[in-house]
Amino acid sequence: MVVINCDMGEAYGLYKMGDDKALMPHIDVANVACGFHASDFNHMRKTVQLAKQFGVKVGAHPSLPDLQGFGRREMKIDREELTNCLLYQIGALKAFLDAEGLPLNHIKPHGALYGMAARSENIAEAVADAADVYKVPLLGMKGTLHQMVYERRGHTFVAEYYADLDYNADGSLIITREHEAKDPADAASRCTRAVNEGKTRSVAGNDVLVGADSICIHSDTPNAVAIAHAVREAVRPYLTAR
């Protein structure tokens, strides 16, 4: 079975990012920004309340401390400092979840941190260190180093497929600072293939192996709502009941 997740709650102060309310009916799980790449205390609580209204589960989407770069730039950071950075962010979100009577569903690192954890053992270990405290599943990419580390550390691993990002020939994600609009029908078709066959076509034209326990859509993709609608209709037979 499959769930659809979305990175959201990424507004900041008076600045808006994505249409979270329009996306909520099409998703099962919200990955809520925790203030270090986007969001703030007001938007975090508003997003949690919106998810509660629509019956959507909420997980933490912590980042490297990079508001200026939206968390999509890599940086050097040691294991202990990163663990503390993650505990700080996840704890803030959990306070808002506690206030609304909701559980923390999972943890999913954001942007550059996600990619770094897929390649660097120290970074993946730091993510697992934070997950040790909250004892919730971790989202990531199948066949990567972070899957090996998370599972070795005893954490439930949820394999993600990306509806609105491209894949390199080696199966790694192409993470851009700004996302481009994608054709909803093509995204839906790729998601269906990922679910059925565990494969997707890379930008080089070869097939790469993927996991699709959960399908991700980014709220900052320009036509995210249209993609989410098309993907949900395409994979509806495989969806886990809310």
TrEMBL record:
Secretion signal, residue range per the UniProt entry: none
Molecular function terms, GO-annotated: 5-oxoprolinase (ATP-hydrolyzing) activity
Keywords: Hydrolase
InterPro entries, per database record: Glyco_hydro/deAcase_b/a-brl, LamB/YcsF/PxpA-like
Enzyme Commission code: 3.5.2.9
Family matches, as SUPFAM superfamilies: Glycoside hydrolase/deacetylase
Gene Ontology process terms (BP): carbohydrate metabolic process
PANTHER family, per the entry: 5-OXOPROLINASE SUBUNIT A, UNCHARACTERIZED PROTEIN YBGL-RELATED
Protein name listed in UniProt: 5-oxoprolinase subunit PxpA
Species annotation: Bradyrhizobium rifense
Gene transcribed to yield this protein: pxpA
